[in-house]
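Data's thin. Show one?
=====
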Amino acid sequence: MPYKRIDLPSGRTTFKSFWRENGVQRSKNFATEREARLFAARMVDTVERQGIGDPDRLTCAEWFTKFLDGLRARGELSPSTIGSYAKHLRRWTKLIGKVPLVGLTVGHVEDSLTLLLKGTAGHRPISASTARLTRTVLGTCLEAARRRKLRHDNPATDALPPATPKGQQRKAKTFTAEEARRYVAAAHSEKAASLFHGIAAAAVLLTSTGLRRGELLGLKWSDLDFETGMLAINRTVIANESGGTVIREGVAKTNGSLRPITLTPAAVEALRQHKVDQARLMLSLGRDFERHDLIFPWHDGRPMAPSVATHHCIRLCKIAGIKGRPPMHGARHFHATALLGAGVDLATVAQRLGHSSPATTLAIYSHSDSTKDKAAAERIGEILAALDK
């Protein structure tokens, strides 16, 4: 029996529950047999088997650590996603880490969000959008605790998030058509040639396919069919939690991310020329060039770190005179808005972008630009003028 009655010399009676934690037997006293029995059942059914110990002593910080360790062990999320979770949970650790998990309230969460928005000692305030994301990560973590019956509710989901200003939409920062032209032209210039090998072909591919950064860096020559102009997205390159660069075979951001894409003739030609140039580079470096079959590796053949690619594309934007745009994702957004503006159906655009659902595409790219709005005004003016005749 995981609990027993103890008659004390004083004449009082207490009830002691027992459980094992990391190989050590522990106990806890209760005034009534019912309390001892219920606690013992809780320890056996939901805690002892999970290796957590007394849930009443478990702090939020300890649970955050166990939650992240579980994510790493399962391997279902990318290291970069787990790293993002860890970053957000570090914020919460500083604010509520010492609070017992069972004692965490909606008030704790909302007061902490206020501190994050205002800024805490030694830390700058965060934006409302970042605060909402931080709350979402906490909610995911606490939902895991609720499922394991370490809590009966989830105070993060009950806490009010920072308000979104009225009329604010999730809008993509996209290159204009002129900026996309300058982006590709700059990538072919002598100034850009030293950024990374194949940057001209990369710029053509980014604007004409809308590839994500990790998808571009994970491309191999075996994924490309020059005859049909088809390119298969089969892997991604990401940064792990320690900052290393990892190739993830058969794994991408969403279920729709592993996909075939039809290339433009210009993209096929750019890649054909890049392959010739890369063969010359491999020949000149010999054994110093690591052969991973990557289309856009680092100068010695190793996978290029995503942060390095972004850094060089920032420099490319400076050469092209482009300001205030994501250096690689701006090309992806241009690709999407250009296709939608040309009347390509939503499902096809979503498939090319690797979105799991056309609804995602619509949510990001539904806003109209000023050029289309002006054209619409001119068109309605023509219609109304015709009615007066």
User: Anything to note?
Assistant: The first strand starts at residue 3 and ends at 7.
